[in-house]
Amino acid sequence: MSETKKTILKSAWVLGLFSLIGIGLVSLTHAITAEKIAENERLFILKNLRVLVPDEMHDNDLLSDVSHVSDPVFGNEQSVKIYKAFSKQQLVAIIAAPTAADGYNGSIKLLVAIRADGELIGVRVVSHQETPGLGDAIDSNKSDWVLGFAGLSLDKPQLKDWQVKRDGGSFDQFTGATITPRAVVKAVRRTLQYYQTHKANLVTQQEHADG
Question: CA torsion angle for 75, 76, 80, 84 (degrees, to 10)?
Answer without folding.
Answer: 20
